[in-house]
Amino acid sequence: MAKSFFSYYMFVSIVLCVFFTYSKRYQMPFDYELIFSVYEVAYYSAYLCVGYFFFIFSYRFSLKKNVSRNGYNLKNDFNPKPRLFVFLFVQIAIVVYFLTRLVSGVEYTNGEQYIQDYRPLGDKVSNLVLLIQSFLIFTVWRKPVFVFILLVLSALIAFLFAWIDSSRASILPLVGLLYYFYKERKIFPGVVVLIYLIFCYMIAMVGRSFTDRIDFHSLNEIVSLTMYKFDEVLVWVVSYFTAFSVYQFAYITRDTLGDFTWYDFFYSITPLPSFAWPYIPDYENWRADEFRPMGAVSEVYRVSPLMLFVYFGFKGFLAKAIDSMSNDIARLFAVVIFIMTVVMMFQYNLRSTQWFYYLIALS
After folding, report:
1. What are the DSSP calls for 89-117, one per residue?
2. What is the C-alpha separation between 170 and 122, in angstroms, rounded?
């Protein structure tokens, strides 16, 4: 599954990038479709295609082994009572946590509510809690009533993140349920969840232009604007996940934006806190501008084109290890993290994504 996602992601991203550049029919983030020619897109995409070859080579020739030695069969190895207790306890704790974050992020002035923090719900801890919410499906796998309860609560949490935080993390609570419907071959509910997930992401993207999002009038405007410009918003969401990644790499590489050295590279991949280093790099050098970081792929390419290919080979090794896992829980955890690293490697710094690789190793 890890290999398939990476392959489809690279193929779709490059093809859409060429299409948007050639047609210029849809507006891309930062007007990328206007500042590149098809030839330039193809030229910089060639580096990514060579990197993909290293990914496939590493995947094919990596030793196949089960990372999780004790297999876990969700249908045959299931003791419901303790797992239901865990589900109820953790689910209540998660709901209380996010309600507390929401209330603490709101102030009352002259009878009106406004968000004190631009994103009162989201931070690294909250993202981890969202992942835990996603993995709760393993505690109620064979209990349809509790699966339904989990579905409703996960959908509610996802919507709150999309509405109040306008966060892309809004998709995380539903990933586990998508995996559940996929494993159980339940196509219709799986498609419904997928559509709802895309809708939440569209709400999140539109909501970023609203500062007072907690107001229900604003919510109505966000939903109305999303439905009115449905095709534009959908294309924007799809391009932000796919073509934008290729544009970002081409833009950073072509214009030699930002600065990233060997020291920065070792600093980024080493899990030591900043205070343990004799010299802390200037993070502003790792950005194209105030809105766009260089991205891990652009950073390793800046060190050396060879390092870009090594980086892709490392991704192939990880994908093979994940696809060889026999433990369903460990595999789901690793696949979700791997998918996040694939999307983030073009749009987030290497140091920001390194922790996900260590999480995959621990799984």
Report:
1. HHHHHHHHHHHHHHHHTEEEETTEEEESS
2. 10
Quickly list DSSP for 142-193.
T-HHHHHHHHHHHHHHHHHIIIII--GGGGGGGHHHHHHHHHTT-HHHHHHH
Q: Give the angle subtended at the CA of 141 by the CAs of 167 and 340, to the nearest 5°.
A: 30
Q: What is the pTM of this model?
A: 0.75
Q: What is the CA radius of gyration of the chain?
A: 21
Please, are residues 245 and 296 in contact by the beta-carbon 8 Å criterion? no
Contact between 303 and 263 (Cβ < 8 Å): no
- Cβ neighbors of 174 (< 8 A, separation 6 or more) are 134, 154, 155, 158, 193, 196, 197, 200
Q: What is the pLDDT of residues 39-83, one digit of tens each?
A: 989 999 999 999 999 999 988 887 655 444 444 444 444 455 667
- Residue 107: CB atoms within 10 A of its CB come to 10
Q: How many C-beta atoms lie closer than 10 Å to residue 97's C-beta?
A: 14
Alpha-carbon gap, residue 153 to 157, rounded angstroms: 6
Q: Tell me, what's the pLDDT at 55?
A: 92
Number of C-beta neighbours around residue 312 at 10 A: 25
Instruction: Average the pLDDT over 147-157 and give the result.
Output: 87
Cα gap 339→178, rounded to integer Å: 14
Burial grade of 221 (CB within 10 A; 0-12, 13-18, 19 or more): middle
Three-state SS at 77? coil
Cα dihedral 90→93→99→100 (10° resolution): -150
Phi, psi values for residue 197, rounded to 5°? -60, -45
In angstroms, the CA 305 to CA 150 distance is: 46
SS3 39: helix
Q: What is the pLDDT of residues 14-32, one digit of tens each?
A: 999 899 888 887 777 777 7
Structure tokens at 335: 């696949």
Helix, strand, coil share of the chain (percent; to 5): 70, 5, 25
Determine contact, residues 121/160, Cβ cutoff 8 Å: yes
Q: What is the DSSP string of 3-29?
A: HHHHHHHHHHHHHHHHHHHHH--SPPG
